[in-house]
Design goal:
Blueprint lengths: L4 H4 L22 H12 L3 H12 L5 H9 L11 H14 L31 H10 L69 H18 L9 H16 L3 H8 L3 H9 L6 H10 L4 H6 L32 H12 L9 H7 L4 H7 L1 H43 L6 H10 L9 H13 L2 H13 L1
Length: 467
Amino acid sequence: MLLNTREHLSPRTPLFALPPVGLGTSKVETLTNYSSRLASQIGVPVGRLINGLILPCCNTGISTIKRGVKMGSAFHLANSFGSVASEWVSALENLTTVNCLDGLTFLPWRNVFEPRSGITSPIKRWCSHCFHEALQDHPVISEHLVWTLGGLQLCPIHLVPLESRCHKCGYKPYAQIHSKHLPGFCSRCMEWLGRPMPRAKVSSTDSSWKYHVWVARSCAQLLNNPELASISSSKRLQAMITTGIDYISNGNLTRFSCLLRRSKSIVGEWRQGHVIPGLEASLHISYVFQLPLESLFSGDTNAWNFSSIQELPFSVRGLDAGRKPPVRRNWAEIEKFLGEISDGKHRKISSFEEAAKTLSIDSGALRAQFPELARQVSGVCYKRRCARAVLKASQVEKAVLELAEIVAGKVLAQGHYPSRRRIQAEMLQQGFRTDRSHTSLIRRAQLRLYDSGKLDNLRQGNKAKSD
Ligand SMILES: [Zn+2]
Ligand SMILES: [Zn+2]
C-alpha cells in the first residue's frame, strides 16, 4: 500500500536511513538512483518524494532549475556539483540522517570545475553487463555515477559502449528519473536491461578507441580516489598547465596549444587562470600528455616528468566533431587528369564541377590550385555540352518529323486533307503536344506528302466525288 505523502511524510519526519551503494568507488550510485531506492523503501512514488519532500527543502533561488527538475530535464544536475546537487544532498541528509550523500555526486570535485560548466549528461545511459553482474553478485541494483559523465563513452569496467536505448522497446529515457523508475529496468516496458557479456570482447587499435578507454579509466580512477578531491582545485590545475607549457614546449604556447588542437588564446586564458578547463578539456590534456587525471586536478607537477605525447584522435567528440582529417592529395596526378580532360579525353565529364566531384575535391579548392587548367577544362566542357545539345536537338527533330509524317499519312488515309491543325490534334492523341517550334517540321511533313503525289490522289478522288 502506498503512503499518502501529505499525511505520512513531512520534512520533519526522519526517513529510513538507507545506506548508499558503492561509496568511495567507481561503482558508486547516483544521488537520483539513491532517491529512487529510498522512495521504494518507504513505499511512495519517486515523484512524490522529490516534489513533496526534496524540492520544498531546496532553497535554490533559480526557479528555472527548480522547474527543470520538476519537468525531469534537470535531474542530472542533482548528480553534478552545483547548487541543485548541494541542496538535494542537504535535503536528503536531513531527511535520512545519512551524512555522506555528497559522495553520490560530483560535489567533492566542485573546486576543480567552473561553476557554470556542465559535466553530467541529461540523457540516461547504462552498461547492461554491469546490471547483469550486479544481479548475480549484489542484492542492490544501482545506476553508477560515472555513467552520467558527458565525456564518457565506454563502461570503465567492461570497456563496452554505454547504452541509452531499451533493447526491447527502443525507448530512450531523456531524464535520470521517471515516474516508474526502477534501477536496471526500462521505465516504459519494464524490461530487465541487464545482459551477459558476450564472449568476444569489443576491442580496437583505433586511436579513437584508445582515447575513450583512457577516458573511461581516468573517470573511474577519479571516483576511486575521493580523498584526492579535497586537495584538488582549479588553481592547482592552472599550475599544472603553466608547468606543462614550460616542460613540454619551453614556454611556447603555440606548440602546446597545437598538441591539444586548441586555439592559442584559450590555452593562454587557462594559463592566466581567466578560464578554467572543463572536464572534456582536462581529459584532452590528460590523454595528450598521458597524465593521470587526478595528478592534473591535485597539482602533482612531478607527474610531468613521466609524461609523453599522444596525438589526440580527430574523431574525438566535442572538439572536431564532424571535421575530417586533412587529406593528402597527389597534385601531380590531379593535374595530369585535368590535362587529359582539356586534351579531349574522359568524354563523359561535362563540367569542371563534375571533374572535381570525380576527384572528390571541392571545385573551389581545385580551381584555386590550377586556375589556368580549370579555365581550359571549363572551356572544353562547355563545347562538349553545346555539341551534346545540338545532337540531342537533331535527334528530337528527326523523331518529331517522322511522327508528323506518319500522322499526316494516317489523316490522308482517313480521307481528310492533312492540315497543320489536324496533324497537331492527331499527334496530341498519340501523346505528343506540339508547339510553335514544331510548325516548320509539320510543314516539311506536308511537303514530303505533296512530293510523293499522295495529295494529288486525294484531290482527284474529291473531284470525282463532286462530279
Ligand atoms: Zn559495465
Ligand atoms: Zn523498454
